[in-house]
């Protein structure tokens, strides 16, 4: 489903060039659930952003379901992203002036899902992350872990083909972290969702099919 | 050093009242290093915000070095906070239009520390968190864990009497998480810094003097 060929990503600030990723060669099959681990700053979020069509590589190409997606114009890129991909961001990116319910329904609006069905799917997703009591809260009225769970609910509400999760349990106690992993395992098992999860938690990574390790922008054995 | 007597905190949204903390009775002695653990949403950040004079309790009183601080006018409260307290926020709260160096020096500006000494202390703090190579970066050019480390450097740069850390290793790999714990242990041992750390990581909590557990806003055995 995913093929990365010789991917490189360089960032430039005024003074420094950072090679965030180099020589990335990667194949992930439909329905696989893989983890990505590695030290802080080694390129994990950068890799996930490229997979999620949120960023373009400096070199190399990215085939998603056989289609070369890193060269798409931004309108087509956004369309592909909205239809196929769910993303749990490391810093959540909730919309501050929308309440929990309205934040979670956004992916369904992009797909033109009808109002009745949206209400049902949003309620279901919020129930899965145990936040049904907070539907009318605004993000700044939630704890850190509750914000993370809203981000999770939003990413899974449309049952996307490809789910990208950037440290989805970082702000959660171990019990809630296990609950979140159960949700991801269930999506993978029952809906064949392909999942790429960045995590610092070896305990959670061991529950997935494979662990890829990044170091200084490269995949290592 | 810290005495909380019958502390309660209630939040009200349009529809729901949340009793985030109730009947909190707590004494922490100068130089102690304690952890606070508990499920997502149980009141940990709320408790830390009250300890850090960022929020006032709905009931009860807070004595800091024998002084009743929850009743101080906001100007005096800010003064006490700037002089005595360092805070590592769960969501970092870095200033987006200041680079790393300028973010870290802020507590020293509040204390009127001279330029030469500020440069030296900032360099030392950034070296401790292994970010010397990123001094001119802006927060949005940093990884999640690098942002967390800038927040840590800023909180420790002025060697505060009281350090409040809200999940300081949540975005860090286990190796960097251990390095951060070493920094905190060192401050505690060499400078008698009183430290209250919220964490979801039992492994890190075990390195501290005591673990307090919160559940549904109450301290439990
Ligand atoms: N401004 C607010 N308005 C309404 N409710 C709030 C507000 N801030 C926090 N709460 C609620 O108070 C409770 C405690 O929040 P707090 O941030 O202290 O939790 P926490 O223990 O730090 O959780 P986490 O581990 O997820 O960070 C939560 O249920 C939260 O929804
Ligand atoms: N916009 C940017 N400009 C310059 N450098 C950047 C930018 N974004 C990221 N970087 C750098 O690229 C490197 C990789 O960043 P990335 O966010 O992928 O790390 P990460 O593996 O997700 O780390 P963490 O575990 O801390 O989240 C880091 O060293 C970071 O400083
Ligand atoms: Mg990251
Ligand atoms: Mg919190």
Estimate what percentage of residues of chain A fall within beta strands: 25-35%
How would you state the average pLDDT of chain A, rounded?
Answer: 96
Strand order of the largest sheet of chain A: 6-7-8-3-9-10
The description of the largest β-sheet of chain A is: 6 strands, mixed
Distance between the termini of chain A: 22 Å
Number of discrete helical segments of chain A: 7
Shape of chain A: globular
User: H/E order of the elements of chain A?
Assistant: EEEHEEHEHHHEHEHEE
- Percentage of helical residues of chain A? 25-40%
Task: Tell me about this structure.
The structure is a homodimer of 221-residue chains. By secondary structure, chain A is of the alpha/beta class. The first copy, chain A, is built from 7 helices and 10 strands. The first copy, chain A, has helices at residues 44-51, 74-84, 100-110, 115-128, 144-156, 174-191, 202-205; strands spanning 2-12, 17-28, 33-37, 59-64, 67-68, 85-88, 162-166, 194-198, 210-215, 218-220. In chain A, the strands form 2 sheets. In chain A, strands 6-7-8-3-9-10 form a 6-stranded mixed β-sheet. A 4-stranded antiparallel β-sheet of chain A has the order 2-1-4-5, with helices on one face. In chain A, strand 1 and strand 2 form a beta hairpin. In chain A, helix 3 packs parallel to helix 5. The two termini of chain A are 22 Å apart. Chain A binds chain B through residues 11, 13-16, 37-41, 44-45, 90-91, 133, 136-138, 141-146, 148-149, 166-167, 170-177, 200, 202, and chain B through 11, 13-16, 37-41, 44-45, 90-91, 133, 136-138, 141, 143-146, 148-149, 166-167, 170-177, 200, 202. Bound molecules: adenosine-5'-triphosphate (2 copies) and magnesium ion (2 copies). One magnesium ion (MG) binds at residues 44-45, 90, 166 of chain B.
């Amino acid at each position: 489903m995913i093929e990365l060929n010789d991917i490189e990503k360089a960032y430039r600030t005024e003074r420094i060039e950072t090679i965030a990723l180099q020589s990335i060669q990667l194949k992930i099959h439909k329905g696989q659930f893989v983890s990505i681990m590695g030290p802080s700053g080694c390129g994990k979020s950068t890799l996930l952003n490229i997979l999620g069509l949120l960023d373009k590589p400096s070199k190399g190409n990215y085939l998603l379901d056989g289609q070369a997606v890193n060269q798409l114009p931004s309108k087509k890129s956004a369309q592909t992203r909205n239809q196929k991909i769910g993303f749990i961001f490391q810093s959540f990116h909730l919309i501050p002036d929308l309440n929990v319910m309205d934040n979670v329904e956004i992916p369904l609006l992009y797909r033109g899902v009808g109002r009745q069905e949206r209400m049902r799917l949003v309620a279901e997703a919020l129930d899965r992350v145990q936040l049904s009591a907070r539907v009318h809260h605004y993000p700044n009225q939630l704890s850190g872990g509750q914000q993370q769970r809203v981000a999770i609910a939003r990413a899974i509400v449309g049952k996307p083909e490809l789910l990208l999760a950037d440290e989805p349990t970082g702000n959660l106690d171990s019990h809630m972290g296990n609950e979140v992993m159960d949700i991801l395992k269930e999506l993978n098992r029952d809906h064949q969702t392909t999942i790429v999860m960045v995590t610092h938690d070896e305990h959670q990574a061991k529950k997935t099919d494979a662990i890829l390790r990044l170091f200084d922008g490269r995949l290592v054995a």
